[in-house]
Write a structure and sequence with these properties.
heterotrimer; A mainly alpha (about 500); B alpha/beta (about 350); C mainly alpha (about 180); A: about 500 residues; two-stranded antiparallel sheet; 22 helices; about 75% helix; C: about 180 residues; mainly alpha; 2 domains; 7 helices; about 70% helix; transmembrane (chain A)
């Protein structure tokens, strides 16, 4: 059977009324879950496990795929409207989405998010379908040293995210890595910076920091500036001009592909994908300096990337049987309970599951788009809530969201602390994006650096001996040097002129 | 974890389909921090009522309230799977007059969940899933409670360690691996799915010590899960991986990775077919159980212990359980409270020896 | 003027950061070494980070702020908020209406919310918090406020615990 025939077979399964119903339930449920602060795809999927007990495995995983997609999309809504990312993967969306909402272009931002997600998702499904088996091989070529290099490359984005002051950006980044190192060290079990507090042993959840620094910090900033969350009653137009379409099309395309490959790498996933997409576009764009101030490309890129990455993360799961992310690990658990062992044999043993999932992803994506576009005006009604009430509601939603993560009041205190830190950072012009980026990448970088050195028995050459990690390190160096060189050239030119 | 149900139902409600799912989610609320019986009783009529009269129990004691049933970890892991699967079987087979309400209390490799259970001394619940970490984590001093603080209820299943290499690896047996380590410890990297000093590391180091290699010479590289470790073996980043038999089924069956040793006492057919021998068959007198059982709070009432150990014994006789065991690749290994307790003490000594040998415990 | 204003906080922050990084480094040196030799132990990264922070904080002390006016004008956010500010009625603020007071009160109120959540229960705390803060931020529609606060408090609680079997702390209320 070739891919096309397979896909037809998949559609046969995915178009059964039962499958359609569950795709629909899945994307809707996922979207709503994703909108709620603190709940992301992992929580959404974990919740699905008991529901899928006893279900036909093909239908069960179709439901889960729908939820996964929906949750990632849903997170973008609160990122854009409230600066409160519901899912880690949409933090980057808030960088430009929220400024757009503030300018009264919430509708446009949400529509762009919906279109970009759709395209990103579709690209990743096509990728999943045609090159999944090949990619599985590529994915395993990423070992600790390669990951280390990838994270170094990712961290160079700190420079371009630093906006006004490089020093302040770097301080934020260093602080982010510091936060990410708190808790028990996986390599040795040593507790670091836990101050003897058992609540800190597992470190600080990424979402606590994101909600604190972004959502709660924003509440404080709004109080300080005496302004509302966004222009009242201003959804703005949903329509995109031809000019705008032309503007965002290339970023969506690039970020979809980048996102997909990031997702394929075990351990990278939607969050990193969205950050890489964002920084790539910021670096490429001629108007890169307007990123962070409401550039539509700054919404399109991370949204396309994170949806593509979530599709990509199915590759190692379905082809190798190893989960590439926390989310797919939960999915793997669910599949095992249903009596399916994902892996290279799955394509032969259970083609209905494999192709059913792929076909249902197409359908789920279309559902997402047609469901969410008409819903945008409804969702945006939240902006009509009086400022005073909206502020207190944002606070309570942050609290409920984090309480639901761990049932631990200690974590709520952490949100408050990070809210105040976020506020101070904004007041004194420290950029928040490098902190978040460094927090995600820093811990992974350290872990893999130490793993690699453990393997090589302390020989640092392991990072340059391997072609992929060497390439990535060179790219990292270039991305630091090129802007510098350009600046020097400009400087010389100006002197000449 | 079950708090998540709300989000889904909320969501499903939006799409007007909540009725179909309410039953799936309509378990009673649990208080993750303290017991709350009113709440539980008020809720148990949601879906747990039909099971009242079909029990046969040895003692007259029966649980009155829904049982808080804890996986001291995130959703998706080994403890979580055990808790959810047993809860489901107990419910489907009407083995108890009340609900077993699974909940996750993640954190600190289990220590946060254990601390929670330890606060219920003398009570008949909560029950929680336990496995070697309850011995290992306290040994490496990250939990103030150890296995002696809790009441063993029943040991249920076991898994074994398996040593894997790439199909074209030069290592034909685990003896080859140990000999290579003996010659040059740096030359062989052994990946595993848990932190240094925890399960996978101990298992490999223990075998090495039994073979006669210095246990500290095993160059153990910790990954965050057996899956990640196996990916790294597939990519050739490490030379050998040690993980659980259950986790490796997919890779072994497809022939992508080659097993060279496993830690059970008796040979296992599937693995023997794949060309692997037990440690014992290779002349290394060593077994390692990745057991999973159920434990309760300190000083649990004797009659409650009796009730539950019988209930689990009954559970393991059911066909529903058999089906799940097969799907999940588990191996039944029932021990009642007393046997389990002795077994735990033996395990403690074994682990302490190995950890001392590696140099992690003085 | 502006430059001067901004210059000082930078220096104060740099001193705070410097002290913080010294504290961080001291703690880094107290991270126990692992019993087995590791090529890179748990303390290396923290030490590197700590010293980087020292260097960065010193650099921040001497960093010359670029001229401010150009940037803040190009920054939409500032621009917007200025507009809103101007639009707002210019009357004398009472003590409680000052931004600083509002921020402190909000932080304290959140801390109180967290403290009371598991003691007084979800419904009471949430109801009081939403109503109280909304009123405090200047919304005077009491009826609408009470309705919204009740919907959030009771609605969430009953939907979650009763309908869906989800735990939220009940606290003082008898249900």
């Amino acid at each position: 059977m070739d891919a096309f025939e397979n896909l037809l077979y998949g559609f046969e399964i995915a178009l059964q009324p039962e499958a359609l119903l569950f795709v629909l339930i899945g994307v809707v449920a996922g979207t709503v879950i994703g909108m709620l602060p603190g709940l992301g795809p992992i929580s959404a999927l974990a919740l699905m496990i008991p529901i899928t007990y006893g279900m036909d495995p093909a239908i069960g995983i179709i439901l889960m795929a729908g939820v996964y997609y929906g949750a990632i999309f849903g997170g973008s809504t609160s990122s854009i409207l409230l600066n409160a990312p519901g899912v880690a993967g949409t933090v980057a969306t808030s960088f430009d989405g929220y400024p757009l909402a503030k300018q009264g272009k919430a509708g446009k931002a949400l529509a762009i998010a919906a279109y970009s997600s759709f395209i990103g998702g579709t690209v990743s499904i096509v990728g999943l379908m045609f090159i999944a088996p090949l990619l599985g091989r590529v994915a395993v070529s990423f070992g600790p040293s390669e990951y280390f290099a990838l994270m170094v490359f990712g961290l160079t984005a700190v420079v371009s995210l630093s906006e006004k002051s490089l020093i302040k950006g770097l301080i934020a980044a260093v602080f982010g890595v510091m936060v990410s190192l708190m808790g028990m060290d996986l390599q040795t079990g040593t507790a670091r910076y836990t101050f003897g507090n058992i609540n800190l042993l597992d470190g600080i959840d990424f979402l606590i920091v994101a909600l604190g620094v972004f959502a709660l910090g924003e509440v404080f900033v709004l109080l300080k500036k005496r302004s509302g969350a966004a222009k009242q009653n201003s959804l703005g137009s949903l329509k995109l001009t031809k000019q705008e379409v032309r503007e965002i099309a290339p970023p969506i395309g690039r970020s979809s592909i980048l996102g997909f490959f990031t997702g394929v790498l075990p351990g990278a996933g939607a969050t990193i994908g969205s950050f890489l997409g964002y920084t790539m576009e910021k670096n490429i764009a001629k108007d890169g300096n307007t990123f962070g101030k409401g550039n539509i490309k700054g919404v399109a890129a991370p949204e396309a990337a994170n949806n593509a990455a979530s599709g990509g993360s199915f590759v190692p799961l379905l082809t190798l049987g190893v989960p590439g992310s926390g989310t797919t690990a939960v999915l793997l658990g669910a599949l095992l309970v249903m009596g399916i062992t994902p892996g290279p044999l799955m394509l032969e043993d259970r083609p209905d599951v494999f192709w059913g999932v792929i076909a249902s992803m197409y359908i789920g994506n279309i559902f997402l788009l047609i469901l969410n576009l008409p819903l945008i005006p409804l969702i945006s009604k939240i902006l009509n809530v009086p400022r005073a009430m909206l502020l207190s509601l944002i606070i309570v939603f942050c609290m409920i969201g984090v309480y639901g993560l761990s049932f631990n009041p200690f974590d709520l205190m952490l949100v408050l602390i990070f809210g105040l830190i976020g506020f101070a950072m904004r007041m004194y012009n420290f950029p928040a994006a490098p902190l978040i980026l460094a927090m995600i990448l820093g811990a992974i970088m350290e872990e893999n650096m130490r793993r690699a050195l453990q393997i090589s028995s302390g020989d640092w050459m392991i990072f340059v001996d391997k072609p992929i990690s060497l390439t990535l390190l060179i790219m990292a160096a270039l991305s630091l040097l090129i802007p510098l060189v350009i600046r020097v050239i400009k400087f010389i030119n100006r002197k000449k002129a | 974890m079950r708090h998540l149900c709300k989000r889904f139902i909320y969501a499903a409600g939006v799409s007007g389909m909540s009725f179909a799912l309410l039953t799936a989610c309509g378990e009673p609320p649990d208080d993750p921090t303290e017991e709350n019986n009113n709440e539980a009783e008020a809720e148990s009529n949601a879906d747990g009522n039909q099971s009242n009269d079909t029990n046969e129990v040895a003692s007259d004691w029966e649980p009155e309230n829904d049982v808080d049933y804890i996986a001291p970890a995130d959703a998706g892991g080994g403890w979580d799977t055990l808790i959810r699967t047993t809860a489901q079987v107990i419910d489907e087979e009407d083995l108890a007059p009340v609900n077993f309400a699974p909940q996750n209390i993640p954190g600190s490799g289990g220590a946060i969940g254990w601390a929670e259970v330890a606060g219920h001394a003398g009570e008949p619940q909560p029950l929680f899933a336990a496995s070697p970490p309850i011995i290992l984590v306290p040994l490496t001093e990250t939990s103030q409670y150890d296995h002696t603080d809790f009441t063993p209820v029943a040991n249920l299943i076991t898994d074994y360690s398996i040593v894997l290499v790439q199909p074209d690896s030069e290592f034909e047996s685990v003896v080859d691996v140990f000999e290579a380590i003996e010659e040059d410890p740096q030359s062989v990297s052994v990946g595993g799915g848990s932190a240094a000093g925890s399960m996978d590391h101990i298992s490999m180091a223990g075998a090495a010590a039994e073979f006669g290699v210095n246990a500290a010479d095993v160059n153990y590289v910790p990954f965050s899960g057996g899956g990640e470790a196996m990916t790294n073996l597939l990519g050739g980043h490490v030379d050998v991986v040690i993980t659980g038999v259950g986790e490796s089924t997919g890779q072994v069956e497809s022939g992508e990775l080659r097993p060279i040793a496993y830690s059970s006492e008796e040979p296992i057919e599937v693995l023997a077919d794949a060309g692997a021998e037990t440690f014992i068959e290779q002349g290394i007198d060593y077994t390692f159980d990745i057991w999973r059982g159920i434990m309760g709070p300190p000083d649990m009432p004797q009659e409650a212990v009796q009730y539950y150990e019988n209930m689990y014994a009954d559970m393991m006789e059911t066909s529903t359980w058999e089906g799940q065991v097969e799907n999940l690749g588990w191996i039944n290994n029932y021990q009642n409270s007393e046997e389990f307790s002795e077994f735990l003490d033996e395990q403690f000594e074994l682990f302490e020896d190995v950890l001392t040998e590696i140099g992690l415990v003085e | 003027m502006d430059t001067l204003k901004r210059f000082r906080p930078n220096q104060i922050i740099s001193v705070i950061l410097f002290l913080f990084s010294i504290f961080y480094i001291v703690l880094a040196y107290q991270i126990p070494g692992y019993a087995l030799p590791r090529p890179v132990d748990a303390d290396l990264f923290p030490k590197v980070l700590g010293f980087s922070m020292v260097i960065l904080s010193i650099a921040l002390f001497f960093e010359r702020d670029r001229p401010v006016d150009k940037e803040s004008e190009s920054e939409t956010e500032d621009h917007l908020s200025h507009e809103t500010e101007e639009k707002e009625e210019k009357r004398r603020e009472t003590f409680w209406e000052k931004a600083e007071t509002q921020i402190v009160v909000t932080a304290v109120a959140i801390a109180a919310y967290i403290f009371l959540l598991e003691r007084a229960g979800f419904v009471l705390t949430t109801l009081v918090f939403v109503y109280g803060m909304t009123w405090f931020y200047g919304y005077k529609g009491h009826l609408a406020n009470i309705i919204v606060a009740s919907i959030i408090g009771f609605g969430f609680y009953f939907l979650l615990t009763r309908g869906l079997g989800v735990y939220l702390p009940p606290g003082l209320l008898p249900f």
